[in-house]
Specification:
Layout: E1 5-8, E2 27-32, E3 40-45, E4 52-58, E5 91-96, E6 100-106, E7 114-117, E8 121-128, E9 131-135, E10 138-142, E11 146-150, E12 156-160, E13 167-173, E14 213-222, E15 225-233, E16 238-243, E17 248-251, E18 270-274, E19 277-280
Parallel strand pairs: 7-14
Antiparallel strand pairs: 1-16, 2-3, 3-16, 4-15, 5-6, 6-13, 8-11, 8-13, 9-10, 9-12, 11-17, 14-15, 18-19
């Protein structure tokens, strides 16, 4: 996330002592990426964030993996693999490669456990449902058709208003998820020609610090391995933070699509980028209005990329009604 943001109380200069009214020090945590050479945030905790009571094994099965099969097109009815569980146990892995993994989840229950993906950024698309994302950085309201971009290493919870109406599509990215470079100028500001801008991005709002001692369960995911870490202090104990690494939301309804007189390739509808893959939006728009425009769908081949279409709502030219 390339945009600087600041909330709560922080010292006037980074990496200097920051004292409470009683003389004790707040604990500064530098949360950085790419070996301290890329974007980062500084977080100020009431207590030592690394205090751990104990670590325990934890088992979680996201479903059997596909075996190698014939190279052909596949149509997956994701609702047929629905399970049950909370925002991380309900996930069912559908597709994966060396760069990303794609899950769907029918979330049916709440949990007080915290969750952290240690090896991957997550993009959680809220197909159905509404609620809140809670993290160290604060509270972020969640609504239908939100993309939630959650940097790796973020400790968070997702809670929903009605657990009979929650469906998610989750993409794990083993590289950093970012706004495409061609949408931004040299200073990092989004261009006038970009399909969305900074006003469309929602950041968490810092909540009252939870200064609570006890045993708080944190489930940590390392690739396809899990463990349970019992924290001594509630992880949401920040008095303030600033920087450019934090979870954020963008709603697909705020995407302004590019319109072409003749057919535009999928790359014209990009929304996020990562190493070796991109994510695109195909949303309602004025469509191919040249009088001799080729009827869609028509044959096209992308020899360098696999393509995955996730259907959300309405009719689309490449989808049958059956």
């Amino acid at each position: 996330m390339p945009f600087y943001f600041k909330q709560g109380d922080i010292p006037y200069k980074r990496h200097i002592t920051f004292a409470k009214d009683n003389g004790e020090l707040y604990r500064e945590e530098l949360f950085s990426t790419h070996g301290f050479s890329n974007i980062y945030s500084n977080k100020y905790h009431h207590n030592m964030p690394s205090k751990v009571v104990r670590v325990e094994p934890y088992s979680l099965d996201h479903g059997a993996e596909w075996q190698d099969s014939l190279l052909q097109n596949y149509k997956i009815h994701s609702k047929k693999v629905d399970g049950k569980g909370n925002f991380f146990t309900a996930r069912k892995k559908l597709l994966f490669n060396a760069d990303c993994a794609i899950y769907t989840a029918k979330v049916t229950e709440d949990t007080e456990q915290f969750y952290r993906n240690a090896y991957a950024d997550e993009v959680v698309f809220v197909h159905e449902g509404s609620g809140k994302l809670y993290s160290e950085y604060g509270v972020l309201a969640v609504k239908k058709w939100d993309y939630l971009v959650i940097p790796r290493g973020t400790t968070y919870q997702l809670k929903f208003d009605d657990y009979s109406q929650v469906r998610l599509m989750i993409t794990e990215a083993y590289s950093m998820v970012s706004i495409p470079k061609h949408f931004r100028n040299e200073a990092g500001q989004m261009l006038e020609t970009a399909p969305y801008c900074e006003r469309d991005i929602r950041q968490p709002q810092l909540a009252q610090a939870r200064v609570e001692k006890g045993e708080f369960e944190l489930i940590i995911k390392y690739a396809d391995t899990f463990q349970k870490t019992i924290l001594e202090w509630h992880p949401f104990d920040l008095v303030g933070w600033d920087g450019a690494v934090y979870p954020w939301a963008f709603n697909i309804d705020d995407y302004a699509p590019v319109v072409g007189k003749i057919h535009l390739p999928p790359s014209a509808h990009q929304v996020f980028s990562a190493n070796n893959f991109v994510m695109c939006n195909f949303v309602p728009r004025l469509y191919d209005f040249h009088p001799q425009s080729i009827p869609a769908p028509y044959y096209h081949t992308n020899i360098n990329s696999d393509e995955v279409l996730y259907y959300v709502h309405g009719d689309f030219m490449s989808r049958t009604r059956h």
